[in-house]
């Protein structure tokens, strides 16, 4: 169903107003006819109104049957619409942002160039020099550097090992599970507990996380003949 309103004058070349208002899409078209041709103006389409109850709201992209996804640095990101591009500031009246374009009349911040550096407080001792230094890796100490090459059980399961194979640093490198570089090439292997194993494997590692040890104990209690060699 659509409503159409038309207004026209008797002369052929005189301007007339024509308005189309289809109720289905809520989009308005306005046309102005002049001697050289029509000029069309469109309004933005109205956004649909969505109403839902709190009980029926579910997480987007996740089904109730799947396990919850852990937050990691690789899957974190801003919400859609929360990050906007900074507006390009002009100079002068022609930029359409006022005479001074928000920079004020005079001063260092109104001139061209980078202005003052970050953290500058006019010459007094800045905040980043007043607070005490951090300890550990944040302060440049070696105590916070990694001591192991961590590998999860799910990565070992997805690597395609056969039953009875030996899982070590060398075999994980051959499978492409890990690719240590620099000082990490001299670090030992550590097994983490995310995921499960479905076959018997001989794992040779220097350390196991507490959760991995707990899952191993439960697995041994359920099937004593499941666990293979475990060195370290």
Describe the structure.
The protein has 232 residues and is α/β, with parallel strands linked by helices. Among the domains are: 2-42, no CATH class; 145-231, Ribosomal Protein L15, Chain: K, domain 2. Helices cover 13% and strands 17% of the residues. The protein is built from 4 helices and 10 strands; from the N terminus they run ββββαβαβαβββαβ. The chain has helices at residues 127-130, 153-158, 169-175, 210-222, and strands spanning 2-7, 17-22, 29-33, 38-42, 149-152, 166-167, 189-192, 202-204, 207-208, 230-231. The strands form 3 sheets. The chain has a 4-stranded antiparallel β-sheet with strand order 1-2-3-4, with no helix packed on it. A 3-stranded parallel β-sheet has the order 5-7-9. A 3-stranded parallel β-sheet has the order 6-8-10. β3 (29-33) and β4 form a beta hairpin. The protein is elongated and about 75 Å long. It starts with a strand and ends with a strand. Residues 82-91 have a biased composition (Basic residues). This is Large ribosomal subunit protein uL15/eL18 domain-containing protein. It holds the Pfam family Ribosomal_L27A. Keywords: Ribonucleoprotein, Ribosomal protein. Residues 93-105 have a biased composition (Gly residues).
